[in-house]
Design goal:
- By secondary structure, the protein is an alpha+beta fold.
- Helices cover 54% and strands 7% of the residues.
- The chain contains 26 helices and 11 strands.
- The strands form 3 sheets. Strands 1, 2, 3, 4, 5, 6 and 7 form a 7-stranded antiparallel β-sheet that branches. Strands 8-9 form a two-stranded antiparallel ribbon.
- Strand 10 and strand 11 form a beta hairpin.
- Helix 25 packs antiparallel against helix 26.
- The longest helix is centred in the last third of the chain and has 21 residues.
């Protein structure tokens, strides 16, 4: 990192520039600060490219696509002005050395860190590819070794048209020679599979400390890239050899997808296997490989990757589901100064880490009570070893709160999250993703406690900060908007809820596409909101349009597909077409039983609906038979709030049926009984 040159601008847009981080083929990269003093990375395009209309158009498209990239292993774009003079793009900043610096200073990565690197890069590439981008220059200098896992930086930025520098002829996609794919060298069409070839090379380099395609001359590098792939070095761990060998296939179709790489490597645990690499030089500015110019250490501001797969630690749930829909794990995001080695027993930190992993596994295995007891015993020891303000201590407190939530004690979880929020705000900052995640959790717990007014206020307070820090199109921002609409509905403001859902639907179609499950979910919310407003005909029509799309995308047995079919039954009944409702219900019931199970509460509740429809259709014998069968099955189930509530509803429906079938007194004429 260098001081600003006299020729450098002092401000770009609303960002104050403080240092020069480097310069590349397209522009200069600066360290900047927002008005509130938060660090950002600002990339400013050189004038010779800014005057090219084709370049500007491509820059605008790719900057917009880059801003949509989600995931915990990439560098999000937080702002851009492709129409500026000159154009510029801003990314979040996080300190940390590049993989190039780590390999140059420390040598090959240990086995566990290699596995974390492989899965982290695969997830990052998956997010990039899902946004319609190809990185085109994945290399160690573009991998930031953050405190909680790898981050991919400098992706998705347009290359200048007509630039024939480097290996390829005019108009071809450029890259760093040692990490190119064969199709990049041959100037063929480059797509996501090209990044997978580069991923194999990066992993091999990280495993053995050298690039297997290296040669003394550029011509030698080219021969190695377009010739038969080299043997995977023997030093590479066995489970990664197959990954690298598949990535190095010359036929792009035969290379694995990022998802397949993650599946081949399996779940990893960054808490146990990811070393503390420390900050990069000059306040975290990484340097590029091969003597190139420095590149920015840009990334999601502290998005952790340390939560085990499937572990809902501090996640962002969709309201009413009872489980997180989009994980915002509560892992460490900054390398806080731990206690010095002299202040704690040797090896105690590693021992505490391993204990935490054991309790994490308990939680994963569905035993939050045992995990909670373990976490609460571990917390004072962790604070004593690392200090009360260490990010790992904050993370453990978030897991304690999450366990209480999973045990159904939302009041205790709310108290834990509120206490945690004060310390996260003071230590990590109000814009840290862990702080934002805790604010979201406070809103969620309020909703679970049926305090819809307070929950709505909390969501409305955190929503603009989520949009500003993560971006308006980020999954967590969109989920906050979804939950806001749901609480409006719970408060009876169905018109406002419908407007919110419709606005959200437009954004999800634009950002995710019409067939994304979240888009389909929002379509379902719109259809339900129409029914809540009393427009059952419009609600029925929307559900009927939604059903074939959910069946095609999710499958006929997916709970959301089955829910749509139930909504159709319900709306038909509301419209008074009980015959059609009963027909749809009798067709749905066996599918519901097969997909969810005979004892699933949803299946049992639907059988009660079938009995009610039989009664309304004038078939009391069928209604009575259904109720008797349902009552017998409920008697087999253990006591519990859900089962007891359903038993009560069955008794009520039985009473209604009994009254409905009693002989009626004549509507006119003398009363048959003496007064």
């Amino acid at each position: 990192m260098q001081p600003l040159d006299p020729t450098d601008p002092e401000r770009i847009g609303r960002y104050r520039l403080t240092h020069r981080l480097g310069a590349g083929g397209m522009g200069r990269v600066y360290l900047g600060r927002t008005a509130a003093g938060r660090k950002v990375v600002v990339k400013v395009i050189l004038p010779q490219y800014a005057g090219d209309p084709e370049f500007r158009g491509r820059f605008a498209r790719e900057a917009a696509a880059a801003a949509r990239v989600g995931g915990f292993h990439t560098a999000p774009v937080v702002d851009a002005d492709p129409d500026g003079n000159p154009p510029w793009i801003v990314s979040a900043f996080i300190p940390g050395p590049s993989l190039h610096e780590v390999l140059a200073g420390r040598g090959p990565l240990p086995h566990g860190a290699l596995r974390v690197l492989a899965v982290g890069l695969a997830e990052g590439l998956e997010a990039i590819h899902d946004a319609g981008l190809t990185h085109r220059d994945l290399k160690p200098a573009n991998v930031l070794m953050a405190s909680d896992g790898p981050r991919i930086i400098d992706f998705g930025i347009a290359r200048p048209s007509g630039d024939s520098s480097g290996l390829t002829r005019t108009g071809a996609t450029l890259g760093t020679p040692l990490y190119m794919s064969p199709e990049q060298v041959d100037a063929l069409e480059v797509g996501p599979a090209s990044d997978m070839f580069s991923l194999g090379t990066v992993l091999a380099h990280a495993a053995v400390g050298r690039n297997p395609f290296d040669a003394p001359t550029l011509a030698g590098i080219v021969r190695n890239l377009i010739g038969p792939p080299p043997e995977v070095p023997g030093e590479v761990p066995a489970e990664l050899r197959a990954v690298i060998a598949r990535c190095w296939q010359h036929d792009p179709v035969r290379r694995p997808t990022p998802y397949e790489v993650a599946e081949m490597v399996g779940d990893v645990d960054p808490e146990a296997d990811w070393p503390a690499f420390g900050g990069g030089p000059a306040d975290g500015a990484g340097t590029s490989a091969g003597g190139g110019a420095p590149v920015p250490a840009a990334s999601v501001p502290g998005t952790p990757a340390g939560t085990p797969a499937g572990l809902p630690s501090g996640g962002i749930p969709a309201y009413g589901t009872g489980a997180p829909a989009y994980g915002v794990p509560t892992g460490p995001a900054v390398t806080a100064g731990p206690a010095s080695p002299a202040s704690r027993a040797p090896g105690s930190e590693e021992s505490l880490r391993m204990e935490s992993v054991v309790f994490d596994r308990m939680r994963e295995d569905g035993d939050p009570a045992s995990a909670l007891a373990g976490y609460e015993r571990l917390l004072p020891r962790l604070r004593g070893s690392l200090g009360p303000d260490h990010p790992r201590a904050l993370k453990l407190r978030a897991r304690i709160a999450a366990c209480k939530e999973e045990l159904g004690d939302h009041r205790a979880a709310l108290d834990e999250y509120r206490s945690l929020l004060r310390d996260q705000t003071a230590i990590l900052g109000q814009d840290h993703i862990d702080t934002l995640g805790t604010r979201f959790q406070i809103a969620y717990q309020l909703g679970e406690l049926d305090d819809h007014e307070a929950a709505l206020a909390a969501y409305r307070a955190v929503l603009p900060d989520l949009a500003r820090v993560l971006g308006p199109g980020h999954d967590h921002t969109l989920t906050a908007r979804e939950n806001t609409a749901d609480h409006l509905s719970a408060l009876g403001d169905h018109r406002a809820a419908l407007a919110e859902h419709r606005h959200l639907l437009g954004d999800r179609i634009r950002l995710l596409g019409p067939d994304h499950p979240d888009t389909l979910s929002t379509r379902g919310a719109v259809a339900k909101a129409l029914g809540d407003l009393g427009d059952d005909a419009a609600s029925l029509a929307e559900h009927r349009r939604l059903l074939p799309d959910r069946t095609r995308v999710l499958g006929p047995d997916h709970p959301d597909t089955l829910t749509t079919r139930f909504e159709i039954v319900h709306r038909l009944g509301e419209l008074g077409d009980n015959g059609a409702a009963l027909w749809e219900a009798l067709v749905l019931l066996p599918d519901l039983t097969r997909a969810l199970g005979a004892d699933d509460p949803r299946t049992l509740a639907f059988r009660l609906e079938v009995a009610r429809l039989h009664r309304l259709q004038g078939n009391p014998s069928a209604a009575e038979a259904t109720l008797r069968s349902l009552s017998a099955d409920l008697d087999r189930l253990p006591q519990g709030r859900g089962a007891d509530s359903l038993r009560t509803r069955v008794r009520v429906e039985s009473e209604v049926l009994r009254e409905w079938t009693l002989p009626r007194a004549p509507q006119s004429g003398p009363w048959p009984y003496p007064a």
